[in-house]
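Regression report. Comparing outputs from two consecutive submissions.

Submission 1:
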Amino acid sequence: MYKTWIKQSAVLTVLSAVLLSGCTSNSTSTTAVSTLNPEVTGTSKLKVVTTFYPMYEFTKQVAGDYADVIGLIPAGAEPHDWEPSAKDMAQLKTANVFVYNGIVEGWAKKALESAANDKRVVVEASKGIQLMEGLPEEEEGEAHDHGEADGGKILDPHVWLDPVLAQQEVIAIQAGLAQADPAHKADYQKNADAFIAKLKKLDESYKSELKDVKRKEFVTQHAAFGYLAKDYGLKQIPIAGLSPEEEPSPEKMANVVKFAKENQVKTIFFETLVDPKIAATIAKEIGAKTDVLNPLEGLTDEDKKNNLDYIGIMENNLKALKKALNE
């Protein structure tokens, strides 16, 4: 889970002193893209700083050869736990564009204030998407891990796992790059259109492959697949809540085991960046096997070795889901 807000504030306060704290800070925009516009001239490339893997990948696809794209959160790191270093803050301060998902990066808004840059374009890729609320049993104890809607409801940030909603994030990123670098607006549009075409093809594959599966429920390590499940007529049964590090209560564990036994679940899904011991414990209890359902919060060394990217991992997720739902 995220470190406490007190700790984050202390870290960012120290970093802000290093980063010329007298500069004017950005205001938070009510749209996906802030209204600030840096000057990019001549043949210089945009410097675009992103947060975790999906934001990096979506931005690289849109930017093509016209920007240098940096991912702050390294491969293998769990983004719910990560905090920026002084070096990361320096990268953020000098960026022409900053791309983040929203909610996952609890440190982002404070960091933007500390690493002030009044010419930086800020893209909150999930802004404008209708976010789902967490399930009631997920809300208690997760207020520091995810944003809150009106009335203190916890919001689900995992929109990148839905190929349809991912398209909206790509559109937001394209608009931000075009705002920062109008000279290449047509190029960013062309690149975005090409990637969106791949996402639409992925969406069609999910629709056709999951349409006639035998069962609709699947058990997964944490509640990352709500948007995907909703779009394709499925239901996720999460062991933990919206945060992958959330420890499920004994009652929650018992309920999952009871459901799995009653519904003859034969596969318990786990994740690549989180200790799978809880999923393995439940699988052992009910005599099921385990398999990976990747929430794409980061790439592992093995993913990189196998040249896997967002589309490739989402295709692997589809294969795993189809297999489990037809057992």
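Submission 2:
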Amino acid sequence: MEWINTLNTLCHAFGPSGAEGGVAQIIEEMARPYVDEITRDTMGNLICRKKGSGPRLMFSAHMDSIGLVVTHIDDKGFLRVGAIGGVHADAVVNTPVRFQNGTCGVIAAQVGSTPGKRTMADLYLDIGATSREEAEQQVQIGDVAVYNTPVFPAGALVAGPYMDNRISCLVLLQAMERLHDCPNDVYFVFSTQEEVGLRGAKTAAWSIDPDYGIAVDVTSEDGIPGAKHTASSLAGQGAAVKVMDRSVICHPKMVNLLMELAQKQGIPTQRDVIQAGGTDAGAIHQTRSGVCTGGISIPCRYTHTPCEMVCATDVEACVELVAALAQTKLEKEC
């Protein structure tokens, strides 16, 4: 896993929904040598273009993360918080966090709250302050905390915070390194505010007006003990080609194109269906008069927890498939 240091940098970049500037700057510096043009729009989307004469092909990997926003500071300096995105209260108890200014703390559960039934109202952040005044010298109402857990290899897998979706940002960065002459006009979009409603992808797709769209994201993994088979993908079985999720039914021609391209080039793939959750594809496919849209996903365990896991070989398969599609001469019409 030669890319684990890059992944570590991406996973620990500050970038919760609505405040993605820090991670965007890091990605921009990494992408600059490999693309022809880089812009940012009003929503904060980072749009990296590799120019070509063919149809417009948009890849979108959201760079925002879930987080915890400060809603109240009590007299003893403890912070009450709300969720930005899909934070599950029971999954984050005793997790270390940090704010953009470097202030660190721990998520704790209120005494008497019931495990398995906790809500965000049962949680608080302990930053070591002893009074409201001391806490306010470090954080303010509206400041956002993110998970401060490590990235580390675990056998053939790698674990850490925010694999959703910094691992897909890594996939796009790795893929653009492998491109030479592109027959298509390729846009690599690192989108904002996906975790709170696919908002960045919506405006980026409207602006780019792509002929083809691909959301690159994680997907639920079905191989853990007790899985209820609401997902189809397994870690270690290759790139997951999206068929459908709650936000999109992918265009059959795009599903077939990806599967055929993978078979031709010997890229391991599997078909991806999940019954909950969505991706930027949900916004892209409804743009203007409609976009021929699909998805390339990395199976991920323990999504939306402080320690998510993906398989290194699946990551490589996704890189190969993204690069292969970008370098395939596409027709103007899907």
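Expected: both submissions complete independently.
Actual: both completed, but the second showed a warning that disappeared on reload.
Relevant detail on submission 2: The mean pLDDT is 97.
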